[in-house]
Amino acid sequence: MPTIIKLKNINKTYYSGAPLHVLKGIDLEIDRGELVSIMGASGSGKSTLLNILGILDNYDTGEYHLNDVLIKNLSETRAAYFRNKLIGFIFQSFNLISFKNAMENVALPLYYQKTGRKTRNKMALEYLDRLGLKEWAYHMPNELSGGQKQRVAIARALISKPQIILADEPTGALDSKTSAEVLDVLKKVNATGMTMIIVTHESGIANQTNKIIRLKDGVIEKIEDNSEHSFSHFDIQNIK
Amino acid sequence: MVSLLYEIWNTIRQNKMRTFLTGFAVAWGIFMLIVLLGSGNGLKHGFAANWGDRMVNVVQIWGGRTNIPYAGFQSGRWIGLDDNDLRFTSQEFPDEINATMGNINLGSKNISYGTEYLSSGLRGVEPDIMPVEGFKIAQGNGRFINGLDIREKRKVIVISQRAREILFKGKDEEAIGKNVNVAGTMYTVVGIYYMEDRQDITNSFIPLSTAKMVYGRGINLSNLAFTLSDKITDEKTNTDFMNRYKKRFAEEHQISPEDDNAIWYWNRFGNYVQITSVSGFIDIAVWIIGIFTLLSGIVGVSNIMLITVRERTREFGIRKSMGASPMSILKLVVLESIIITTIFGYIGLVCGVGITEFAAQFFEPTSGRDSFNAFLNPTVDIGVAVQATALLIMAGTLAGLFPALKAVKIKTIEAINDK
């Protein structure tokens, strides 16, 4: 499988108040079609890493190649373009726009690709149908359950046919039953060949991914192959 | 573009109350601007109507009785005007005076034609008086007194439209060329004049030279009038010239230069300059008040847009993560501001124009000798409406621009995490 994400010695320091060296030389390669989780305690730098992967934040030194494009010092406009073309986001708090119905929310990335309204609404309906939400297409976000909202968000992440999906604690706001459902959906999406990176602190979620990247204090502690899904639910290292 | 407008419509629909309140401020601002401008115009039109068709650069001179003993003369001496005054006035101020004309008031005379008659003021005049006093002669109604009439001392008369109606009542016959009897002397009617703002005027005019000959006033004039040249442009040049003229007049008649009772004059231009400057002042004041009223509306919009941007920070963050460029966010906010200001501004504009046009119906121009129009046609013209619209769009852009720039500046990741 060809590499889709290549990080070389990525460093990131925040300068609000005392300088905070958050990422201390991250080297990482992720292949196309992988299902990867990033784990780490809060403050380990996992959110920062995800933001850099999602071109939502800049890094100081190093190199980040996404789909063989060097992502470095991009203008806001250029960054927005790559986000639109290459990346689908799934957030913990869903981040649906409250005054748009499910269909319009799903269609939003296509709006920024200058797709006509009719076409993008039709495509949005197709994606909602795939996720079993066809009847809810004209409902507003506040009329949907948490699981439904996250499925709308997944449809929205998929509609622009991105190269990677970045999911930041996708089940963080859901109960265990819905969490399992949503994770199931994500695994199905991955099965179609979509590269997926899930940031989580729940070992149960991480265990369902094929590779677990453990971050600690801004460095990669270890990368575990989890293709057997044998990772213990009782995360001994975290307990220590 | 259609998509963008749809996006904006979506947010506006979402915040009906907020949009309405913001818009109301703008609508009220532009409404007040239009009403104020209309009122200002009403005052100006009122002033202008009082001038009618009369020329404004006219000075009229009368004699008086001296108050101060001078050069061996007692006070109380009557100073009359005569041909000598006409002469020095027309000859000695070539730079300041265009035309000089004498005038003899012959008082009220009976004018009759056949069995019809009326009592009419009769004046001996010179041709130049016609534009000065705003007399008009319609096509086919003959002519005014001319130079030949003066030179040949012709017995011709110009009567008013009203006088023609009375004298030639019920007769379809032509008045021009007919002889009328003016207190025993026959005159040939050569013209019928009218004044736009005084339809009831009946005064009749004969040549000045004829008046002197027939009525035995060889030397005395009732008054004289002259028109000022374009060298007299403002209050200062006007006052300077009048002082020089008065001095010369005092010399000629051997009266004290300080004697204000021996010469009377009415300087229409001086009044005109004053009123014009008042009009200009009204204009400026109205625009300033109006613009500030509008400005408070615009500041309102800008403020609301700032709050909106603050409220929508997270939404903008989400949009950016989905691929919205800074430019597209900027457009979203600025265009929303422009749409709100323009639509509501236009409503205010239409209401303002509506109310001024409605009010205009109640201020009919009045006419007659003592009529005075203080307020007339309080409306704005289309140019002002266009200017106001341009102003609105500009204001809307400005009102939206600063909040929009603020929205763009927030980092995407901070925007998404905004609570």
Explain how this protein is built.
- The complex is a heterodimer of chains A (about 240) and B (about 425).
- Chain A is α/β, with parallel strands linked by helices and about 240 residues long.
- Chain A has a single domain, classed as Rossmann fold (3-Layer(aba) Sandwich).
- Chain A contains eight helices and ten strands.
- In chain A, strands 6-7-8-3-9-10 form a six-stranded mixed sheet, with helices on both faces.
- Chain A is globular, with a radius of gyration of 18 Å.
- Chain A starts with a strand and ends with a helix.
- Chain B has a domain at about 1-50 and about 275-415.
- Chain B has about 425 residues and is α+β, with helices and mostly antiparallel strands.
- In chain B, strands 1, 3, 4, 5, 6, 7, 8, 9, 11 and 12 form a ten-stranded mixed sheet that branches. Chain B has a two-stranded antiparallel ribbon with strand order 2-10.
- The mean pLDDT of chain B is about 85.
- Chain B is built from 13 helices and twelve strands.
- Chain B is elongated.
- The interface of A and B includes residues 91 and 112 of A.
Helix content class of chain B: 40-55%
Question: Per DSSP, what share of the residues of chain A sits in E-state strands of 2 or more residues?
Answer: 25-35%
| Spatial order of strands in the largest sheet of chain A | 6-7-8-3-9-10
- Averaging pLDDT over every residue of chain A, what do you get? 89
Assembly of the depicted chains: heterodimer
- What is the CATH class of chain A? Alpha Beta
Ends of chain B: how far apart?
31 Å
Structural class of chain B: alpha+beta
Shape of chain B: elongated
Distance between the termini of chain A: 36 Å
